[in-house]
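quick one
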Amino acid sequence: MTLKETLILAKKSHRKLAWLTAYDYPSARLLDESGIDLILVGDSLGMVVLGLNDTIDVTLEEIIHHLKAVRRGTKRALVAADLPYGTYKTPDQALISARALITAGADAVKLEGALPGIIRTLAQAGIEVIGHLGMLPQQVREEGGYHKKGKSDAEAEVLIKDAQTLQDAGCCAIVLELVNAPIAEKISRELEIPTIGIGSGTGCDGQILVTSDLMGLQPWFRPSFVKPKADLATPFQKAVREYIQETRTP
Ligand code: KIV
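structure w/ 3-methyl-2-oxobutanoic acid:
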């Protein structure tokens, strides 16, 4: 069964998909052993690991470096990787970039926006493609921030049409980021492939989060829609302070 068929079957069986991000071996291994369905080596790497302001300057080489570590830590879950900004401007460039991610261990690649030509080229080459609509982090500089999408009728109509276009072009799933919840739910009802929401309500066929947001590891930045399930920054710093104390006063 192809990855796309597996995802469609999950949707038909009303099995919600739980996806998270990882960028290194130990996190990937912990997620995998916990039963996560898919691990995304997202270009959120830039903000979460590399200390950049956004995802724009993340390179293909950086994604590949982290993807290889994630692959080593993953036995059971699917692994997907983001095509970074500027690496899929033409079908030929997209094919080279996507093949590099597949060679490094990705089962699927994810790209942002309504780009049916690029998606069709990748899908026809046998590459599983996850779409990404709604708030597109690779457009954050043009848009001047992370804003909810699909609140006006006009925006909602475009989103609904784009989601259908992505499915027709061959996507195996679509991430809906910061999409007005009723519109995300409507798109999810209309598509055969699963939608994976982030900040888009509970009507999607699955959810994805940046793992450090879920774990409360980066308290200096928490998107408003995230409800952390842990506060790992506190025990982390407590352990470090204890270690410092013990080292200084043996
Ligand atoms: O880069 C990323 O981590 C993502 C997900 C949060 C959807 O695109």
